Amino acid sequence: MNSTQNPQPPASPQPAPKWNDQRIELIIGHLLRSGVLLSAAVVIFGGIVYLVRHGHSIADYRIFHGDISPLRTLPGIFHSTLEFSGRGIIQFGLLLLIATPIARVIFSAVAFAIERDYLYVAFTLAVLAVLACSLAGAALH
Q: Which residue in 28, 45, 20 sits closest to 116, CA to CA?
């Protein structure tokens, strides 16, 4: 190499893509799709586990047992899932399905904050508050 030639400067890294509405919509679409697919996979897996363990049982609908199920509380669902119970895994998959739109609202609030669109941050946080109140109210009943 000739000493009179200037070496090429190192290539600068590509700047990170900016947060714009199109990029946010794309991420939200992936988030919703992934949440629904993951939830469906967990529910199907739980159904398979349930059928393997209880598929041979014959249902007796003449007698009703009104037991309080541990699958009505979050700790009960998590404990049942960790015990590899088919019903618990199914309930966990349904929790994932419920959590998907909540994750979307949280992501939207963060994205609007990054864009410094504080009016939409306020609207999104209001929607999140309504969701939280409705879920808390449903948990009380």
A: 20
pTM higher than 0.70: yes
User: Which residues in 16-127 belong to E strands, given as ranges?
Assistant: none
- CA-CA distance, 103 to 96, in Å (whole number)? 10
DSSP 61: -
The tens-digit pLDDT sequence of the chain (141 residues) is 555 565 665 555 655 557 677 888 888 999 999 999 999 999 999 999 999 988 777 777 787 777 677 887 888 889 888 999 888 999 999 999 999 999 999 999 999 898 888 999 999 999 999 988 888 876 665
**How far is the C-alpha of 10 from the C-alpha of 4, rounded, in Å?**
18
Q: Which two tokens stand for residue 106?
A: 């949280």
Written as six digits, the tokens of 10 are 């190192």
Name the token pair of 38: 């993951």
Residue whose C-alpha is closest to residue 46's, from 78, 96, 87, 75: 87
